[in-house]
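Subject: Protein entry, chain in single-letter code together with its fold tokens

Area: Proteins and the way their chains fold up in space.

Attached in line: The record itself begins immediately under this heading.
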Amino acid sequence: MSRRIKSALALLAGNAIGLLLATLLLTGFAIKPISFIVVVIIFTVVQVVAEPLILKLGEKKAPALKGGIALIVTLVGLLVTDLITTGLTVGGLSNLLGATLLVWLGALIGSIVLPIYVFPELRENKK
């Protein structure tokens, strides 16, 4: 399996962990079980597309936001996924903000743990 596919799988798994964490801990935030895989895929695709755009915008307009880009991308990903799928219910502004932190944290933990235990090839430097 190529490094790019393993990176994509690790990103999908990290986002799945974060979305599951938000679903378990926030009342009102829900993902229909039958839609979970679709929601994770759409959320991940939105993040991958939005990240370079938001990063470029942030560098030009507000360089101080550079550290919070991942949180902003997660927030945008949740908003867009909620708008285009019927399987995700955010349940209000407080849930949106809480889910942003939880999904970001879950994805961060996944991006640290998965390369150590599941995809050790991702820890190595690119050649």
Remarks:
- Helices lie at 3-25, 36-61, 69-84, 93-117.
